[in-house]
Every structure is written in structure tokens, then in C-alpha cells.
Write a structure and sequence with these properties.
315 residues; mainly alpha; two-stranded antiparallel ribbon; elongated
Amino acid sequence: ILLASFLLNFVSIIMSSPASAACFDISQLPSLKDGMTMEEEATKRRKTCRFIEEAGRVLRLPRVAISTAMVFFHRFFAKHSFQEHDRFEVAVAAIVLAAKTEESPKKLNTVILECHKLKTRGMQAGRISQQKAGSNSPPPPPNATLDTKGEEFAKLKERILLLERVILHTIGFELSIDHPYKFLVEQIKKMIHTRQLKYITPPAGSNTGQIMGKMMNELVQYSMSFANDSMHTSLCLQFPPQLIATACVFLSAQFSKVEPVNGDWRKLLGDPDVDALTSISVQIMDLIADRKASDTDTCKKIRAQLDLLKSREAE
């Protein structure tokens, strides 16, 4: 019955239009139409992307493959409801497909086994937390190991293979994914080489070359981190990677205490859509807000800077 249901969904996907790669209206996400709140939908994306992140680390996948898997996952659930599919199984299928796409293929059995162990550990940790909180009789977690010759493993493998094909049709076989990384590095290099940035408080005892080198390293490190964070949200559905990269560069400059030499962020960033820049920046800041190391003072200053950009645009 389950396989028949999968096949019916598979046929319906072939008949429908593929998930668009740009500017998706997240208010039209299928899960929201099925009664899920925006916060619940975003939480499922964020938690599953953390699962993909950890699975990629365990499987030793390159960063680009992990990010591609997340994009596949986001695009799949731009066309399908979380109520219709097991998000972890979709994530596993996305990892398998992304690993092939980014020329880092892994054996299917290995991916399934490692992801199953990772999911089981997460469920066990959640069960312990529920017990400490006094929750009544949480369900027992599944077995930590799967018998590759058993029926359970065979059925799971069959579902993953089918979901891989479902993802392919959902994304319209668009396997070439542009990520923000290359765009943000290009932007930072241009700004540094043309000396368009300066520290608000220059480091003492350093020459110009050392200062620029330090600035380059800080900006790239922060920007890459923000770009990675953006993958845990639906930003890749809402905005093109170039604009996400611009927002990451803007945020990295704020955290590095760097500002434009001429004081004009809009001109330096290439006159981006300020509303879009604000939306991307706020969504990333909201994501990192709960981290213990989150710099709340810097976040407040960023919001003030964004408000200033919007007010200047309105003039």
C-alpha cells in the first residue's frame, strides 16, 4: 500500500510543474496550506538541515555537496507538504543525489546506515530530554542498527531510491546549483583589492598589507559562516544566490567592525534591493539569535544600519 501511494505521488509529480529555483512565495508552501504554521514549517526545515549537516560530516562529504543536498530538500518541500512525506527519508535521498551531483558519490547502503544511526541517536536524546521534563511514556526509539539483509532495510532502501527519482522530477532535473560562496568571495576580493573598506578602529602596529590580509580573512570566514546558516532556511527559495551572498558580505562587515571608505553601503554593495537585503539579513540573524555566542549588540547595530539604508532609499 505504501509503495502504491509513493507511485501515485510519483506520477502526479511528473504531471506537475517543477519547483522553481528563484523567488518562491513562501506563503504558498504546501505545508502551510495543510494547516502547519510558518514557524512550525521553518522549524522542520531547520532541524532537518542540521541532520543533513551532521550526516554530511559523518559521511565526509565536501561542503558544496552538503549545501546542494539542502537546496534539493528545500525545493522538494516547496512542492510537497511535510504531512505527505517523511522528511528524514527525503533528506537521505537528497544527500544521495547531491553526493552524485557534486562528484562525491557514496554507497547507498553506507548513507542509509549512517543516517539511520544519526536519526536514532537524535531520537534517543529527545527521549531522555522528555523523561527529564516529566513527559509521560515517550515512544521507544527504533533500533540503532539495521540488518542490511533484513526486510526493514530492504523496504527503506526501496523508498530512498524512489524518493531520489521523485526529487529529480520535483526539481525538474535541475542539478546544477549555484551557491552564494563563489559570489561572496568575488565581492570581498574586489572590495579589498580596490581598498573600498576600512576598519572602524584600525589595528595598532600593523602595516596596510597586514591589515588588508586580516580583513580579507575575517570577511571570508564570517561570510562563509552566514552562507552556511542561510542554507538552514528557505532563503534559497526566496532569493538568488548573488543577493544572498551580498547580504552575507554586509553582515560579515558588521561583525568584523568594517565600514565603507566613502560611508555608502548601497553603492559599495552594487545598489541592491534594500528590502530584499533586509529580509535576508534579518532571517539569518533570527537563525543565529539563540546561539550563546551571538553578539546582540552587533545585531542591534545591523538592524539600525538596515533601517538607515531603507530611509535613504525612500528619500
